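Sync notes, pocket subgroup
Present: LS, DG
LS reminded everyone that the earlier model was apo-only. Rerun requested with 2-acetamido-2-deoxy-beta-D-glucopyranose included. Inputs:
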Amino acid sequence: MEKREKSWKTLFFALTVFSQLKSYGAAIDAGDTLSLGASLTGTQTIISQNGTFELGFFSPNGSNWYIGIWYAKIPEKTIVWSFDNPVNTWLPGMRFGGQQKLVSWKNPMDPTPGLFSFRADPSGAKQFVLTWNKSIQYWETGTWDGKIFSKLLEMANLDKGVHVRAESRNSGFYTSITLLPEINVLPRFVLTNLGGLQINAIIRGSKWNTFWSQPADACAVYGLCGAYGTCNSNNLHFCSCVEGFAPTDNGAWDSQDWGSSGCVRQSPLNCDAKNGSTDRFVDLNVTLPNDYTSS
Ligand SMILES: *[C@@H]1O[C@H](CO)[C@@H](O)[C@H](O)[C@H]1NC(C)=O
Ligand SMILES: *[C@@H]1O[C@H](CO)[C@@H](O)[C@H](O)[C@H]1NC(C)=O
Ligand SMILES: *[C@@H]1O[C@H](CO)[C@@H](O)[C@H](O)[C@H]1NC(C)=O
Ligand SMILES: *[C@@H]1O[C@H](CO)[C@@H](O)[C@H](O)[C@H]1NC(C)=O
Ligand SMILES: *[C@@H]1O[C@H](CO)[C@@H](O)[C@H](O)[C@H]1NC(C)=O
């Protein structure tokens, strides 16, 4: 019973989101509605009014299935909304703020919630923040000054066809982006599984390009590599384990989900050994996080 009520709520939410997405478009097409009692199975999908978005089932790794919304016309299936879980994507035309959150995917193949989230500053400041594991804030947009967020100076050079608004309401601080029709691009704003924000867009052709990303240094993302991990953004794989340690979970580590499990000591400490310990200290040339508290 409880489960049914939950799936109802989620379905309602899905349809609400979908109808909001529909208003993103203009022309009318058939097949954009799933009526009460109707069902969607297998590879069946419904397509938004403008033909921009498609809703159906998808499977990132061919075994687990999720319901989601993606771009209908783009060959590379780009999911903009993962079911039963918060989104990692925000689209122009959607108001975002209040208690809403973008939550990262666990890894590029797994839409279940990762450790990073993006939301309006819970302290009430007129800004948006990136947070690790619901607790540690590691980046912020800077406060809204009526035109731009103070740490995003590049916003001063936005195209005239891009309108960013932000306002405080009773339910919190909100922002929205509107694109005038002459802006013939499909941008999406994504919180990646590596805890960074990106604006990706397709301008001509079918490839996504990243136009903007923050934090500027990938290693400024708190907890990216997990316990006993170190980060180097010059490496193809940013994270590695410090000397004497190895990934706790090789599967997670290989799929870039470094932070959730981190690294473990390869052999136990033996400082108490009567016949002389082989333990030693190792010099590490690393920068510690700003709010470093562990020892
Ligand atoms: C919706 O479709 C119309 C007609 O094809 C087009 O002019 C318009 O730009 C589209 N809007 C969006 C947001 O894609
Ligand atoms: C697919 O992903 C899910 C969720 O991470 C995982 O449980 C499952 O084992 C994966 N299947 C394969 C074949 O990798
Ligand atoms: C995230 O926080 C929870 C407690 O709120 C804790 O149990 C968990 O270990 C933390 N995750 C990581 C990866 O540190
Ligand atoms: C110390 O003793 C332990 C247990 O007998 C042995 O495993 C270890 O190899 C010894 N270490 C050294 C440095 O001799
Ligand atoms: C530590 O790393 C910094 C930056 O790469 C470098 O400038 C410095 O010389 C290094 N220090 C040591 C002791 O290796």
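DG: Helices lie at 2-22, 250-254.
LS: The first strand starts at residue 46 and ends at 47.
Action: DG to write up.
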